[in-house]
Amino acid sequence: MLARLAGDLDADAATIRAVVERLTPHQRHGLRPLPSPLPLVAAISRRFEGLLLDERDRQLLLALAVCLDDSLGPLLEFDGRTATEIAAAAVGDHVTLHAGRVRFVDARLSIWVRATTCTAGTALVHERLSAVFLDRGDPMSADWHRARASLERDPSTARELTLIARQLSEAGHPERALMLAREAAEHAVGEDQDEARLVAGASAVGAGFAVEAAAWLGTLYPHSGERHRWAGLGALIVAQTFVQGAVPGIDPTTVRPGSADESDWRHWTRAAALAAILCAERGDRRGMRLWLDALRDGAVRIGAEQELRDPVVALGWLMAGDRDADMVTESSSVSGGMLRTLRAAVEGDIDLGLRLLVVDESTPSGGPDPFVPGYEHSPVVHAYRSVVEVLLLAWRGDIGIARDRLIQAALTLPIALPLAGLGVVLARRLDLAVHGELGPFARSLTLTLPPGAKMDLLVDRGVRSFLTGSFDDAAATVRLWSDLGAPQTTMTVPGLDELASPSPGVPLAAASLEPPEIALAQQLRTRIATAADGRWRADGDEVAEIARTLRSPFERARVEMMLGSRHAIRDDHSAARIHLQYAERLFELSGATAWAKSVRGRLDRLEAREGSIVPAMGLLSACRAAWSLRLTARELEVAMRAVRGAANREIGEELNVSVRTVEVHLGRIFTKLDVRSRVELTVLAHRTDQHV
Length: 692
Known about the structure:
Blueprint: H1 2-8, H2 13-22, H3 25-28, H4 42-47, H5 55-66, H6 72-79, H7 83-88, E1 95-98, E2 101-104, H8 108-115, H9 119-135, H10 139-149, H11 158-170, H12 174-187, H13 190-207, H14 210-218, H15 226-244, H16 262-281, H17 285-302, H18 305-319, H19 334-346, H20 350-362, H21 379-396, H22 399-410, H23 422-435, H24 440-447, H25 457-467, H26 471-483, H27 516-530, H28 536-547, H29 553-569, H30 573-590, H31 593-608, H32 621-627, H33 633-643, H34 648-655, H35 659-673, H36 678-691
Antiparallel strand pairs: 1-2
Helix pairs in contact: 5-8, 5-9, 6-9, 9-10, 10-11, 11-12, 11-13, 12-13, 13-14, 13-15, 14-15, 15-16, 16-17, 16-18, 17-18, 18-19, 19-20, 19-21, 20-21, 21-22, 21-23, 22-23, 23-24, 25-26, 26-32, 27-28, 27-29, 28-29, 29-30, 29-36, 30-31, 32-36, 33-35, 33-36, 34-35
InterPro entries: Sig_transdc_resp-reg_C-effctor, Tscrpt_reg_LuxR_C, WH-like_DNA-bd_sf
GO biological process, one term: regulation of DNA-templated transcription
Pfam families: GerE
């Protein structure tokens, strides 16, 4: 929305702020279209205060403001002057004419001239434009302007406007389609009005205006004809899911067609396919199974097993984390293309996945897509592809490139909607990786998420604290996240498993989908964190050797950083420097500037604190988090009290155990952490807290 406002308001910051204050929250967040025209705010009035236009020039500017495009020809016929004459006239100071196009020099003038022209004057300009376009053989523009000129309902214009709106929507221009369909709905009656509302809702879905779509499609229930209700079912489920953050709790059997009409069954089957994928995106396996059963039933009835059922079933189970589900690769549908892309990536060939994504987007389909007919070229489908592309780039370790691509896509596409808000999670994590804090794009996108969307904000806070050296806060935050069940997206995004303690028998990425290299890097980091100190040198060398096979510079850098920290804790400064320097360079290579800066801080601390054995007297949260991976809960409590200087008797009294029990626990602690005394334990605690 901000990009659109910048274009319509000549990128004037004061005007943009004033207009934004007049918008509804849904309009600000891109869930409804911007008003047309934009409101006349004081900043615009002041900009054109004192501007005097003769009637002919005013009508020309108004005609330019209300036309559907910027073609010069119709405006010359409307005005009666040549392009040279217009350029030489007073009005020429306000327009730019070039290569058969005409535009406002200052886009804000369009708002001013529309707002300062009376209703009758505007209707007259529309009426004259309608005649111009009719003579030019452009019935779509003629009908549009005729409808806008009518001060009363004109049903004769509605049917043609609706037809053209549908064509525009299917051609990938849903915003213009929505504008025409809304106008058609104002004039239509009966079934024509139902059709206009259906097209308006479908166009709004394609544009990403979820609240607008739900409002238009909701008018079809329960009083419209069956044909329109079935036709709008899938789009309504999508819109409500985007608005609410969860798939509507509908039993598919309660909305099954009661007739044998194949068209009704086709719409119901597609709605089931959409609902199943939306459930899969959100990790709702129960809901996905329910809708997949409906899809199988419907696909048999309409004969769409291969083109619709098979790729949707395979994609749904893949998104749900089932890598062993039967996969199909021959479908040319959007679901089939997404399946091929993700399948290639999770099998380890991310480059192939990116190539397939480009091929699927650039290769025109031979006909309507069986999964999303009419939406093949829509912004919302392009948004899905863009989010998947950014995810694959992040998986490949191109953090800086992924962030740039996401920002570029956010300027034109509704990237907060696909894959249960995955684009927003990526925006936040990529911002943190590059800058160490959330930028304006990430913050703005976060505001667009519906109330039901699940965001693991604790991980974001943990990453920010970790990168800035606030290890106590990072450890406490990640521990709380783990206690809450370690919620995460269904597809793995860069998190903070450096400080995470897996639940017994449950890997941290159990519910997530990722390439094998991402999983291997996570395993290596867990192995570093949990390695027994007595075997550290051998285990560390083996982990370092395996880490060299990681192709993602970002994932390998995180392993190298942990190796360097562990060596620093064991007072092996030479090895620590080597691994930390590797990590710094790899982070820089990936574009993860904030991570590189964090490693540089560790290197600086390594130099500054070399030889120091002064224990940290605070809570030692980072140390506690690291030791919790190797000690039992009771051993951890004994160890932390010993580090703080408590005597065995004091520890026993605090924990309500005998002195002998404390001594046994300390013996086990010394063995597990490979130290020989309380002094060495205290030094180890300090180093762990500084370098973990």
